[in-house]
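Forum: Protein Structure Q&A
Topic: Joint prediction for protein chains with partners

I've read a bunch of threads here and the consensus seems to be that you should model interacting components together rather than docking separate models afterwards. I'd like to see that in practice. Below is the full input, 396 residues plus whatever partners are listed. Could one of the regulars post the assembled result?
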Amino acid sequence: MTATPKIRSYPQAPGEPLDAEVITRVLSGDAEAFGILIRRYEPGLHRFATRMLGSADAAADAVAEGLVRAYRHLDGCREPARFRTWVYRIVVNRCKSHLSRRPSADLSLDDLPPLPDPADNATALERAEQLTLLTRALAALSAEKREAFVLKHVEGLSYEEMAVVTGARIPTLKMRVHRAREALLGTLKEYQ
Amino acid sequence: MSLMDPRIHQVLDGELPREALPPGLRPALDRLQAAAALLRLGPTGRSVAARVMAEIRRPFPGLLTRLVRWVTERHAITVSLRPVWSLVVAAVVVGVVALIPSRGSEGPSLSAEEGVAQFVGRFPGARSVVVVVLEGDDTGAPVGERADDLDGPRAGETPHELGDALLSREGRPLAAARGDQRHHPHHHRGDHQAPHRAQAHAWF
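Posted by a regular:
Agreed with the consensus. Here's the joint model:
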């Protein structure tokens, strides 16, 4: 098995500017260059926020607030090469803030994946059912376990990156991920 | 108790290759990996790029403006406490309140030559009660009748309908006599060793 870097930056395609270069441009007054970072990280941030909050609208708010905050405090990003973990941390905190405003930190089920269209083929139907089931299973997890599972298995962060993003210790994060896996597997088995 | 074989966790954490897992454990691994892959597919929400860029193009308000806005806007302030800490906070609040001097119950300020005699009389059925303070000797001349230079009220009457009254006016004892000792006379006669005494006269 090849060793992967513990904390990675965005994999740049040939010709793409590095995060650190983009940040230098933004800090020197080229605000439009921030759009490069938005395009680069928005899909992952949006996916994470949606899985955390269970609502596309709330996720869009959290991501937008997080990106604006990142822009405003970009000079506080001490390691531009690690912009990815830095911006994830901001959005993670925005999600926590959104969850704390709810009566319960549980995931909202108001925004479940759309019901499959009977005209869809069998594979699409099955996939939609599984996604609904998974969303419900995620909703049943505590916010901390959900966050750990999504960062690890959906966003593909290493435990070291997760520690930077969440501020939690690695053994704690491992425990949360393990508990989340067991709970999800239990739910998946129940519905089979 | 762990519901999963720890080797499944090790494979998912990249600490063991998949091949190291017995075939019987692989369905659970596959199920979890398929679930993660499915969660990675979506969602395809609207991009917030335009919204973010519009926001950052607007001039950033200064510190004072933001402060004024923060102060004038509504904010939900939530304080989360474990129950045990709420008891500690309640105890601290009670302690602080107990330590604050209560100005309302303070008596009149007295000089070194002055004292306060508290007088409580009970006269069930009395039509009226008058309290007087006597000069140091036992001549019986009531101070309240002859002196105008004394501080505070010297005498008072109970309301007619009250037969059992604490003689006071505006929260202060009615009988406040000058002197360097504290007196606690009861009913008609007070402390006979004191230079000043208070008397209460009740009419039935």
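The interface with chain B takes residues 1, 4, 31-32, 34-35, 38-39, 42, 46-47, 50-51, 56, 59-60, 63-64, 67-68, 71-72, 100-101, 113, 127, 130-131, 134, 138, 150, 153-154, 159, 174, 177-178, 181-182, 184-186, 188 of chain A (CB under 8 Å).
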